[in-house]
Amino acid sequence: MKVHISFLATAGFRIFATAILFLLTLNLTACTQTASFGGASGGDGAAVPPVQQEAATLANFTDIPIPEGAKMNVEETLVVGFDKWFGKLTFQSGYSPEELYAFYRERLPQYQWRAISSVRALTNILSYELADRILQLQIQGGTLSGSKVVIIVSPRGSY
């Protein structure tokens, strides 16, 4: 009888260990992938975040400002093109929604984007135009801190 109980304890331990490994693997694969735009993390007390200075990391996004320390959400980003890119760029920032709202209101005109409209709410929405493109920017407060930013650029269409 002792051999049988010992065997059950060993088999039970194997099942338990396998289940734990499975859950850990599942948890790790469910994590959101991010890619750093470079620079230091935000939250240094500046009223407006500094612009990212590393040109190599911003090669595909030279026509919009990216706050320093932003981390792109690869799973939610889909961009087509280079100079005149279109699509959806999503990233996390350590800055508050208020700081990012001020940042984009100040910096987008420096990139020749012209303001169309803005909405201040739980999700701040800014709309801009540049030649034949429309930019819609959404800024949402993060769960614990920082912000989620979604930038959608599309061609101007006639409907």
Oligomeric organization of the protein chains? single chain
The major beta sheet can be summarized as: 8 strands, antiparallel
Summed up, the helix count is 2
Secondary-structure element order, N to C:
HEEEEHEEEE
The count of β-strands is: 8
The secondary-structure class comes to: alpha+beta
Uncertain runs: 21-34, 36-46, 52-59
On the 0-100 scale, what is the average pLDDT?
76
Proportion in helices: 10-25%
Fold blueprint:
Blueprint: H1 2-29, E1 34-36, E2 71-73, E3 78-80, E4 86-93, H2 97-107, E5 114-119, E6 123-130, E7 133-141, E8 147-155
Antiparallel strand pairs: 1-2, 2-4, 3-4, 4-8, 5-6, 6-7, 7-8
Description:
The chain is α+β, with helices and mostly antiparallel strands. It has two domains: 1-31; 34-155, TATA-Binding Protein, CATH 3.30.310. It has two helices and eight strands, in the order αββββαββββ. The protein has helices at 2-29, 97-107, and strands spanning 34-36, 71-73, 78-80, 86-93, 114-119, 123-130, 133-141, 147-155. Strands 1, 2, 3, 4, 5, 6, 7 and 8 form an eight-stranded antiparallel sheet that branches. Strand 6 and strand 7 (133-141) form a beta hairpin. The longest helix has 28 residues, at 2-29. The chain is globular, with a radius of gyration of 23 Å. The termini are far apart.
